[in-house]
Amino acid sequence: MNNKNLGRGLSAFLDIDNMQPTAVNVTNGGKSILNINVEDVVKNPFQPRQVFDEENLASLAESIRRKGVLQPILVVRLDNGKYQLVAGERRLRGTKMAGLTEIPAIITDMKAEDQLEVAILENIQREDLNPIDEAEAYHQLIGEFRHTQEELSEILGKSRSHITNILRLLSLPEDVKSLVRNGKLTFGHARTLVGSADASQLARQIIDQALSVRETENIMKNVKNRSPNGTNLSTKKKHDINPEIANAAGQIAALVGLEVRIKLKNYGGTIEIDFKNFEELDALFQKLNRLSER
Predict the structure, then answer these.
(1) pTM higher than 0.85 for the full model?
(2) CB 3.0–4.6 Å: which of 10, 102, 107, 177 could bond 32 by disulfide?
(3) 278 vs 101: CA distance, rounded Å
(4) Given 55, 89, 117, 150, which residue is catalytic?
(5) 23-61, pLDDT tens digit by residue?
C-alpha cells in the first residue's frame, strides 16, 4: 500500500465513491459490494482500538435504525464462507445493537499486512480514538511498516509534535495508561506525567482531587525542584533549609497545585503561594472550598 493512498483514506484506496450496496454482488475495479449477514462477520484480529464508548455506539445504533448504514464495512472473504472484518467495527457493532441482521460490505482481496495498516489508519482518522490506542497505532505503523514520524505527519495531516507527544505516552506505567484509555485521565494530564517516577501515585491524586492540567503541571514543577532528601531547590538559599519545613511546603503545594514557600520568622512565619493569573487564584479558592467540605 503506498503513502498516497493512505493519506487520501479508505475511499481513495478502494475506489468506492460510486459503489452502492445491493442484495446481489456488484463489482468495481476488482472489488465487490453486497449485503451480508452480521453473524457471518468475524472480528478483525488487527483491530487497534481497545475501548468502544457505549454511549456513542448507542447513538450510532439509533442513527442506523433510522437511516441505515451509510458507509459499507470492509471485509475479506474466508475459506469457510465467513467474512473477516478489516474496517468498520463500530458500524458492525451499531448494526447489531440496532437489531438489524444485514450490513452492506465491500469485499476485497487484501494481504494481512495491508489489513493491519488499513485498520490502524481508519481508527487514527477518527477523532474519538483515545490517546493510548492512538499512540500504539503510531508505534505499529513505525515499527511494522517502517513509516517515519515525518511521513506519518504528512500522511495523516497531524503535526510532528503531536505524534511525538502521543508516542511518549507509551512510557507511562500500565495502570496510568489504563486510566487514559478509559477516559479518566486526559491527554494533557498524561503528557504531564511522562517521565515521572511517581506517575501512578500522581495519577490517583489527579483523579481524587479533580486537578486541572495546570494544577498538575505546578505539582510536577515542585516535584522536579525537590532534591532527593525532600528539600525544595527553588526555595533553597546559600544556607541549609529545615527539611521539615521544606517537606511541609511540598505537601501544601501538592494539595493546592501551586508553588509554595514557607518562611520562618522568630517563633512563627509566613506561607507564600504563587499564582500566575486570576484563573489560578480562582482555582485555588475552589480547591480550598472543596478541602473545607471534607
Answers:
(1) no
(2) 107
(3) 57
(4) 89
(5) 334 444 446 678 999 999 988 776 666 667 778 788 889
